[in-house]
Design brief:
Elements lengths: L10 H9 L8 H14 L4 H6 L1 H7 L5 H5 L3 H8 L8 H18 L5 H16 L6 H16 L6 H10 L11 H5 L7
Pfam family, one: Adenine_glyco
Protein name: DNA-3-methyladenine glycosylase I
Organism: Furfurilactobacillus curtus
Length: 188
């Protein structure tokens, strides 16, 4: 199987690439977990973060939005003293803050997942009229949407990787077997 170059470095990266990366996610929970993972991955090796993924998921209650939104000071201290996780207080606080903001969006009746997939559809509709790529337009629009929700630590690079990982855009390299076969959401 031909894979993206970044996925060829370790068996863990290969498995992530083959089984998860770029597979469309449609639930708030699935999307939030990917966003939280990307926040923790920012500036670090993807392989390192995947190596600590199970421990990170356990320590962060599987990125469960409602539980993270109510994360106590004691739970935060426990997390930051756990040598098996990525002990970064700013990233931890960002994920907790973002869980609260994501939760607030859920109360509006148009879930974050629905908002993101609708935005993806709109970007595909407009890209033919503009001289930008769908990915560039969608990254910019998603970054602005996240900013309007009050999310933190979700700059353009994190948003771009989130969109690729969650299957909103095809981030596979042209010579990758999954490039031609990747389905892009319900509006593709």
């Amino acid at each position: 199987m031909k894979r993206c170059a970044w996925a060829m470095k370790t068996p863990r990266l290969q498995q992530y690439h083959d089984d998860e990366w770029g597979v469309p996610q449609y639930t708030d929970q699935g999307l939030f977990e990917i966003l939280g993972f990307e926040i923790f991955q920012a500036g670090l090796s993807l392989d390192l973060v995947l190596q600590r993924r199970l421990t990170l998921q356990k320590a962060l209650v599987n990125f469960e939005i409602d539980q993270l939104a109510g994360f106590s000071e004691q739970q935060q201290r426990n997390f930051l003293t756990n040598p098996a996780v990525i002990r970064n207080q700013q990233k931890l606080e960002a994920v907790i803050h973002n869980a609260r903001r994501w939760q607030a969006q859920q109360l509006h009746g148009f879930s974050p997942a629905d908002q993101l997939w609708f935005l993806q559809q709109q970007c595909h509709a407009y890209v033919d009229r503009l001289s930008v790529s769908t990915e560039d337009l969608f990254t910019e629009q998603t970054w602005q949407l996240f900013d309007s929700w009050g999310l933190v630590r979700v700059g353009p690079a994190t948003v771009q990787w989130f969109l690729r990982a969650a299957g909103f855009v095809n981030g596979h390299e042209a010579n990758c077997d999954r490039f031609e076969n990747q389905m892009i959401g319900p509006y593709h």
